[in-house]
Amino acid sequence: MQNSKIRKGMNNQEIDEFVNDVLNKMSLEEKIKQMSGNNIGKAIVEDGFLGKRAYDAAGSAEHGIPPFSFTDGPRGCIIVGSTCFPVAVARAAS
């Protein structure tokens, strides 16, 4: 993002300052939105099935927060070539 204060090589102090600044500026609604996908249901319907591509979640252009992309779901990673970690339910059951 061009207006983002986020950049590669930031040190811990710079990261802390950015995070604190953004958290102080965000509304409660904006913070809650960071915990959800960006219209993932619509994207899945457009694709015809889940797992065709990575889906963006969270992010805020207004606050300079880039979205992150994910390829997993409740049953784990579903796209070949993605990094795979145990699904949450498996971790919780152990």
Radius of gyration: 16 Å
- Strand arrangement within the widest β-sheet reads 1-2
Number of strands: 4
Shape: globular
Largest sheet: 2 strands, antiparallel
Query: Please, what is the average pLDDT?
Result: 82
Instruction: Report the total helices.
Output: 4
Low-confidence stretches: none
β-strand percent reads 5-15%
Determine the structural class based on helices, strands and strand pairing: alpha+beta
Q: How far is the N terminus from the C terminus?
A: 40 Å
Estimate nothing, just give the exact number of structural domains.
Answer: 1
Relative helix content: 25-40%
Secondary-structure element sequence? HHHEEEEH
Please provide a brief summary of the model.
By secondary structure, the protein is an alpha+beta fold. It is 36% helix and 11% strand.
What features would you describe in this structure?
- The chain is of the alpha+beta class.
- It has one domain.
- 36% of the residues lie in helices and 11% in strands.
- It is built from four helices and four strands; from the N terminus they run H-H-H-E-E-E-E-H.
- Strands 1-2 form a two-stranded antiparallel sheet. A two-stranded antiparallel ribbon has the order 3-4.
- The longest helix has 14 residues.
- The radius of gyration is 16 Å and the shape is globular.
- The protein starts with 11 loop residues before the first helix and ends with a helix.
- The mean pLDDT is 82.
